[in-house]
Please model this.
Amino acid sequence: MLNNYGQIIGTFLPIILMILIFYFLLIRPQKKRDKAERDMRNSIQVGDEISTIGGFIGKVVSIKDETIVIETTADRTKLKLYRWAIRGKEAAPVEKVEEPKE
Model:
């Protein structure tokens, strides 16, 4: 009887270990990345500079439920995009400080 339980555990243990390894190495990190992306997209406000998955960079002009309107160039071209098309926020430009010349 005890020998049968050992065989059953020996049969299913590798499968259970593979499932756990897949969970901790693949599924869990992907869920964390998805959550971080979702939080970033939900934190976008009017005036933020963003980049899209298509390569456009612009300033957010208006936000609705699932769409965002951005201005892309100096001639004020406006594009209407879905929220999921946003790659990320662009960093605010930092002024260069000249190093003292010796």
The chain has a mean pLDDT of 87. Helices lie at 2-42. Residues 2-42 form the longest helix (41 residues).
